[in-house]
TrEMBL record:
Keywords for this protein: DNA-binding, Transcription, Transcription regulation
Domain HTH tetR-type: 6-66
Cross-referenced Gene3D superfamilies: Homeodomain-like, Tetracycline Repressor, domain 2
Keyword Transcription attached: yes
Pfam family, one: TetR_N
Organism: Schaedlerella arabinosiphila
Lineage: Bacteria, Bacillati, Bacillota, Clostridia, Lachnospirales
Record-linked PANTHER family: HTH-TYPE TRANSCRIPTIONAL REGULATOR LMRA (PTHR47506:SF3), TRANSCRIPTIONAL REGULATORY PROTEIN (PTHR47506)
Name of the protein this chain belongs to: TetR/AcrR family transcriptional regulator
Length: 193
């Protein structure tokens, strides 16, 4: 795909993300995306066949970006604490921003019968995230920056508290104290001294 086509795809996904965060997955149509991206139907269908294809690519992109960021920073021999601080700060900001949360859309998408039946697609995404986080936590332990911890349990604490707050933030106000407290406790569990 040429540069212009890739740029158009990125624009479509950016516009679609706003709609999915606002309406959830099931309520967004290709027509909605055409309007938001200011494309004709033909222009949109030239790049994507369905909202499912757009959303799946968005999920794949998010997972790939996170994994690449962790790998790059570990490969650069950066401090595990610095990497953790940066990632958790991003999570803290996302937990406060209910308008851009894709949690409802993710739940709706992965609960579709045709998606749920695909070798448990959500679980596959979970495993990718788990491997990425486990790599970072083990890196921090190996560098003696993190305490020896039950890596899987800490990953569960991180992912389920993050996703839980993101989901609840769609239903009720979430003040700064909730994500800040979660981040503080995760650091307390992991970071030495």
């Amino acid at each position: 795909m040429n540069k212009k086509g890739q740029k158009t795809r990125e624009h479509i996904k950016k516009c679609a993300a706003v709609l999915f965060a606002e309406k959830g997955f099931k309520q967004v149509t290709m027509k909605d995306i055409c309007e938001a991206a200011q494309l004709s139907r033909g222009g949109l269908y030239c790049h994507y066949e369905s909202t499912r294809q757009i959303f799946q690519e968005m999920i794949d992109d998010m997972m790939s970006r996170q994994d690449q960021e962790f790998d790059l920073r570990i490969g650069q021999n950066q401090s595990a604490v610095t990497i953790l601080d940066d990632i958790l700060e991003g999570y803290r900001k996302e937990m406060l921003d209910s308008r851009s949360s894709l949690s409802t859309a993710i739940y709706e998408y992965f609960s579709l019968p045709e998606i749920a039946g695909q070798k448990n697609a959500l679980y596959q995404q979970y495993l990718i995230s788990a491997n990425t986080w486990k790599k970072l936590i083990q890196y921090g332990i190996d560098r003696k920056e993190f305490h020896e911890v039950d890596i899987e349990a800490v990953f569960h604490l991180i992912v389920f508290s993050y996703q839980g707050v993101r989901m609840y933030s769609k239903l009720m106000p979430v003040d700064e104290g909730i994500p800040s407290g979660i981040v503080r406790q995760i650091k307390k569990i992991l970071v030495k001294g």
